[in-house]
Design brief:
Length: 416
């Protein structure tokens, strides 16, 4: 552990003049909400809009003299690719970046922008796993160096410099540090720094509920590969954390909070609408966890949340809003049997909907020679508790219905 800490100190020297020393800012709104002192470490303001440049550059910097003729390779559909691309450009080393063919064009353009002429992008396969497998095969065939996104001590050392900056800038005692976990590189680096310089700080890992690989691994007392994950929080959705990272984190993390994806979406929208802060799903994880943590433990405490990145695709906005409304209990889909008589829809609108409820989706095909016909109806309620009254009104109208929110298989089939 002490050797890794020394490597983190060395990484800080390597990164001097390359990465931004990002600000740590007290957020008055969240502080008032939780009656605590809440600070955001703004890695979303980093050069490539995430902390990933720290680890990628530190790793590639180590091989700049004797390995540049061979070249380096990585697989990524997001922030790691941008970090590797920029590092290659700055250091003048040729890199090959494998990305899935499904990668949004915006992310491909960003990698091209940061990599300039030093990077070749290879699109392969439909998933990250496909691209990663191909990248490893390419490394084997071309004797290249693979830059792992998290399970590498030099990458961990680079990410750990975030912790050095926090302790340099914030002179108050830090009671809690909330850190997002994907593969665990950032968490491992921060655990190393704080165990040496601020061992009294409780480090809370935060994972998406649909990809809580570190939480499961610690519970099992061995690094565990999840069979299935929800990939929505793409910057933190991995089936297996790094082995090196697990070995470090398992004994230092105070606890882990698994955050529902819908809660992450609510936080993204709140930060944008009320704070003018743009974050990606993984970047919202640590802040989302605050409201899921026992409030009595946070009152009066000094708390730091790592805002890890801001590479959010605007095309995901509708999906984010939908997931948020689902989580908040405001958006509901129903399969409703409408009597096939004139005025049935009018009755639904007049007597079924509440005064402030809104129809957001309606799909109906009239069936001839049938007493009733099914319609898929999306409703946005004004208040979460309005759902009970809405269902009671449907019963009173003698409209048979199925609540699709509670039936994920049927919802996926009918809504998508």
């Amino acid at each position: 552990m002490n050797d890794l800490f020394q490597n983190i100190l060395k990484a800080a020297e390597n990164l001097e003049g390359i990465v931004k020393h990002t600000p740590i800012l007290k957020n008055e709104k969240w502080s008032a909400k939780l009656n605590a002192n809440i600070y955001f470490k703004r890695e979303d303001l980093q050069v490539v809009r995430s902390y990933k440049i720290r680890g990628a550059y530190n790793k590639i910097y180590q091989i700049r003299h004797n390995k540049h003729q061979i070249g380096i390779v990585c697989a990524s559909a997001g922030n790691h690719a941008q970090g590797v691309a920029m590092a290659c450009s700055v250091l003048g080393i040729q890199g090959t970046i494998f990305m899935p063919t499904t990668t949004p064009a915006q992310k491909i353009r960003q990698v091209e922008y940061f990599g300039k002429t030093s990077v070749e992008i290879v699109l392969f396969g439909d998933t990250f796993d496909d691209a990663s497998k191909k990248a490893l095969e390419y490394c084997e065939e071309n004797k290249s160096i693979f830059v792992h996104p998290f399970d590498d001590f030099e990458v961990i050392s680079g990410q750990g410099t975030v912790g050095l900056e926090i302790l340099q800038d914030l002179k108050e005692k830090i009671d809690f540090l909330f850190v997002p976990i994907g593969g665990g590189g950032l968490a491992a680096g921060l655990c190393t720094v704080f165990s040496q310089l601020s061992p009294e700080t409780r480090i809370v890992g935060v994972e998406p509920e649909g990809a809580a690989s570190m939480k499961v691994s610690i519970q099992n007392n061995e690094n565990t590969t999840l069979k299935e994950i929800d990939r929505f929080v793409d910057g933190a959705a991995v089936k297996r954390v790094g082995d090196k990272n697990f070995d470090i984190c398992k004994s230092i993390l105070s606890e882990i909070v698994a955050v529902p994806e819908g809660k992450v979406c609510s936080t993204i929208l709140e930060l944008y609408n009320e704070e003018a802060i743009v974050v990606e799903p993984a970047g919202a994880l640590s802040i989302s966890a605050l409201e899921l943590f026992p409030k009595n433990k946070l009152v009066g405490k000094n708390i730091v949340c790592i805002v890890s990145g801001s590479n959010n695709d605007i095309l995901r906005t509708e999906e984010i809003k939908e997931k948020s409304l689902f989580y908040e209990g405001l958006k509901h889909y129903f399969l409703i049997e409408f009597p096939q008589r004139p005025g049935a829809l009018k009755d639904f609108v007049t007597f079924g909907l509440g005064e402030k409820d809104d129809i957001t989706f309606f799909q109906f095909n009239k069936k001839h020679n049938k007493e009733s016909g099914p319609a898929i109806v999306g409703v946005e309620l004004h208040e979460k508790n309005d759902l009970i009254a809405f269902k009671e009104r449907l019963d009173k109208l003698n409209f048979n219905f199925t609540h699709l929110n509670n039936n994920p298989l049927l919802y996926a089939q009918l809504i998508g």
